[in-house]
Amino acid sequence: MDIRAHVSMVFHLDKCIGCHTCSIACKNIWTDRKGTEYMWWNNVETKPGTGYPTQWEDQEKYKGGWQRDENGKIHLRLHNRAGGLTNIFYNPALPTMDDYYEPWTYDYENLFNAPEGDDQPTARAVSMITGKPMDSIEAGPNWDDDLGGSPVYASNDVNLDKLTEEEREQLNEIERVVFFYLPRICNHCLNPGCVAACPAGAIYKRGEDGIVLLSQEKCRAWRMCISGCPYKKTYFNWASGKSEKCILCYPRLESGQPPACFHSCVGRIRYLGVLLYDADQIEKRASAPDHELVAAQRDMIMDPFDPAVIAAAKKNKISDAMIASAQNSPVYKFVKKWQIALPLHPDFRTLPMLYYVPPMLPVLAKTKDGNYDVDGLEKEGLPAMLSSLEKARMPIKYMASLFSAGNVPVVEEVYRKLIAVRIFKRAQKVKDYQQAEVDAALAQGKTNAEEVEAIFRLTSLPTYEERFVIPPLGREVAVEAWESPLDRKREAGFGVRNKIAKRKF
């Protein structure tokens, strides 16, 4: 066992209200500079929808992540070594500015200083890249937010391809449209495609916490990292000629604070903690068949209370404080203990370390001729006012395409447990269910009252310290890292001069 520690995240989608506060917090700190105007290291998408950049999930177009060959081996979808050398000056899978959007501002000077006249002055849109007026604004980072422009955008979501026509119609019933929000940051993957694709070796994972960083000194602007990342969370700064990406606010983590997007989250959907994993298993787990990918990734995560795991961790110089953080991690509970948090697109085979608790299905089930379609409800023994898995307005196949590489039973197990929590708490608070119905829900969710209460408390009533279990990341080492070699030479020089001065006096 090669046990290592990784700072990991969980986003609880049932609590996301789509306010974009996280995106603005990140933008104000990290990408409010020339060349980064179009970058959103944190963005919030509406699903179903095409996302940002447009149709980023379509790897037939962008060639991101890894693919499994007929022999069960994985290799970069973008290229092999020879292909990478051939295309080093030309990357056909690189997203264009149109795939993102051309950032703009407004000619406020004309608006504020226009002379008096009969017409109302306007603020014309001006490109933040060229500085020239734009004839029209055609896209933005959240262009299809709240299904804006649907069905033009929502119908082009690649996750809808495997749905039947009837299931597609369920999502677009008049006055019963279903959607949810999907916040995204860099997943800081265990098997990152961006790291493997970079010809200059500029991208690397920090050994102490697994955060994926990009060296501005080594970057040579080949931009293979952008195509190699299937989540499109690496960006090119057109002003500096360097690529940039989310750094998980590691300077904040090193001072004991959560990342800015976590700290500012209005819905408190974000959790951060440490996972211990076996690095020897990375290739094996990433090479698993599609239907086994979620289970394979779970198997990599080790029990932080297991004496053998603790001994192996200490052998790798993982501190007692880091192990204690892993034992108190909310991420471990959601992902491994309760198994209700799933990776986004495990079929990309990057082993992402950002997990999502899927959003709860709408309470009301699908209607048929103006009445609730209760056929599916009776199969599961659920009350008619609760949506069943078979007759839900949000097709389970769609959620499986997002979170389990199409493995529907994996998503169904998560939802049965979440439904059990809902029914259990309604029986307590609203008292509209009998004990027999509660027992049936717990049995179907393969859970019990104690676990349900724990899930409810960490979901609805967590303290700041319970949501963010921030490990010690060697603050004293981080301070030294910020000092340049020149600074150290100067300090050494001052020390020598001081010694000479003391001798003289």
Describe the secondary structure blueprint for this structure.
Elements: E1 3-12, H1 21-30, E2 43-47, H2 59-62, E3 66-68, E4 74-76, H3 81-86, E5 104-106, H4 108-113, E6 125-127, H5 165-171, E7 180-184, H6 193-197, E8 203-205, E9 212-214, H7 224-228, E10 234-237, E11 242-245, H8 250-254, H9 260-264, E12 270-278, H10 282-286, H11 293-300, H12 307-315, H13 320-327, H14 330-337, E13 342-343, E14 354-357, E15 367-368, E16 371-372, H15 375-380, H16 396-403, H17 408-429, H18 435-444, H19 449-460, H20 464-467, H21 475-482, H22 485-504
Keywords:
505 residues, alpha+beta, Alpha-Beta Plaits, 3 domains, four-stranded mixed β-sheet, 13% strand, globular, disordered C terminus
Report mean pLDDT, rounded to a whole number.
86
How many DSSP E strands?
A: 16
Largest sheet: 4 strands, mixed
Q: Supply Rg.
A: 25 Å
Tally the structural domains. Answer: 3
Number of DSSP helical runs: 22
Proportion of residues in β-strands: 5-15%
Structural class: alpha+beta
Q: Looking across the biggest beta sheet, what order are the strands in? A: 12-1-14-13
Shape by Cα distribution: globular
Distance between the termini: 60 Å
Q: Helical proportion? A: 25-40%
Which spans of ≥5 residues are poorly predicted at pLDDT below 50? 494-505
